[in-house]
Specification:
Structural class: mainly alpha
Helix content: 55-70%
Mean pLDDT: 90
Strand order of the largest sheet: 1-2
Oligomer: single chain
Number of domains: 1
Low-confidence stretches: none
Number of helices: 6
């Protein structure tokens, strides 16, 4: 069964997938990613989940020793919370994905560079969901990848 998907630029994208299954997968992905970031964003702003201890004096402990008192993590928590809410709302998913992209890069960098890969699994799962949803909403991101950008004038 051939189904026409949303347009990218002036091209129609053809798909051989069942649109109902794809839509269900997109909704489930949005729910998991959005709810995850709402919960973890709230946890940064008002801790309610237990955190594994970080060895004292370690690189991650020193990193968090700067990020916590400087309120940098509160800013990250706000981005996670709002990004997650925007992803959950559906019509605002592209802006939510845009807010969460840099957060995910930093989550992966923290686990790879400071933790030696330990605890990276949730970051990888959320990154896979993010990439899938960017692909699902690709028509909203396509204009960013142009070589003919000109400033908008009135």
């Amino acid at each position: 069964m051939e189904v026409l998907q949303p347009e990218i630029g002036n091209q129609k994208v053809k798909s051989h997938q069942n649109p109902k299954n794809v839509k269900t997968t997109i909704v489930i992905s949005r729910f998991i990613l959005g709810l995850g970031f709402v919960v973890f964003g709230l946890n940064i702003l008002h801790p309610f989940l237990p955190q594994p201890p970080i060895p004292e004096g370690s690189l991650p402990a020193r990193f968090m020793g700067v990020m916590g008192p400087s309120h940098w993590m509160a800013l990250v928590g706000i981005f996670q919370l709002f990004g997650g809410v925007f992803v959950l709302f559906g019509r605002t998913t592209p802006i939510g994905l845009t807010l969460l992209g840099p957060v995910l890069v930093n989550i992966l960098a923290f686990h790879v560079l400071l933790m030696g890969g330990a605890g990276i699994a949730p970051g990888l799962v959320f990154s896979a969901l993010e990439l899938f949803l960017i692909y699902a909403y690709r028509s909203y991101f396509a204009p960013i990848f142009t070589m003919n950008a000109v400033p908008t004038s009135k």
